[in-house]
């Protein structure tokens, strides 16, 4: 999940652009298609936890996901999950990004989304296990991009068969929990 600032347009005789903090809610496969940012993104507003009256223990705040110390100023922030909306991706500017969640933070965020929608609590350990192949795929894609490769070509590479690993697709191997093996294959690919 990516946190940042975006603009919102209101037409009441005038065109006004209002900046506000938002959280992008999609999984990487929802945010990107073929290595390119999808034109429409689902976001939810990020609000001051104090202003919306969230208690310090977050008791009863089922429609919010906590973002403690988002701006490094000690203030509490929250994603207002119930008011998610779709916006044009052009409003999301990479240079205005505030934070990206860690693996544990991403699991906690998904736990809060589940709580909001179902009032059920899934353990962080279970969510980390469920999301590990996605997390590792993103880490590999970041390595691919850092090496100057075309971001759109990564998905094709990951979907390709790996002869050194019994001919399974690299993605299937990754989904089976073999991150180290696919990471080594990627390092060899990037060295060429």
Major beta-sheet overview: 7 strands, antiparallel
Please tally the helical runs, counting DSSP H or I stretches of 4 or more residues: 6
Find the structural class using helix and strand composition: alpha+beta
**Average pLDDT figure:** 85
What characteristic shape results from the CA principal axes? globular
Tell me roughly what share of residues is in helical segments.
25-40%
CATH architecture of the largest domain: Roll
Describe this structure as you would to a colleague.
There is one protein chain. This protein is an alpha+beta fold and 192 residues long. It folds into 2 domains: 1-120, SH3 type barrels (Roll); 123-192, no CATH class. The chain contains 6 helices and 9 strands. The chain has helices at residues 28-31, 103-118, 124-146, 154-159, 170-175, 179-191; strands at residues 2-11, 15-24, 32-33, 36-37, 40-48, 64-68, 76-80, 85-88, 99-100. It starts with a strand and ends with a helix.
């Amino acid at each position: 999940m990516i946190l940042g600032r975006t603009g919102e347009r209101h037409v009441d005789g005038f065109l006004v652009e209002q900046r506000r903090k938002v959280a992008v809610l999609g999984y990487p496969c929802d945010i990107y298609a073929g290595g390119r940012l999808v034109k429409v993104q689902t976001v939810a507003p990020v609000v001051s936890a104090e202003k919306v009256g969230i208690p310090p223990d977050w008791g009863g705040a089922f429609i919010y996901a906590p973002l403690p110390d988002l701006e490094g100023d000690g203030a509490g922030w929250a994603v207002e999950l119930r008011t998610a909306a779709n916006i044009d991706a052009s409003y999301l500017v990479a240079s205005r990004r505030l934070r990206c969640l860690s693996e544990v933070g991403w699991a906690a965020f998904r736990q809060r989304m589940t709580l909001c929608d179902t009032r059920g609590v899934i353990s962080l350990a279970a969510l980390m296990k469920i999301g590990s192949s996605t997390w590792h795929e993103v880490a590999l894609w970041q390595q691919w991009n850092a090496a100057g490769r075309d971001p759109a070509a990564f998905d094709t590479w990951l979907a390709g068969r790996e002869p050194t690993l019994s001919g399974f697709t690299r993605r299937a191997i990754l989904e089976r929990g073999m991150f180290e093996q696919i990471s080594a294959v990627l390092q060899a690919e990037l060295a060429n």
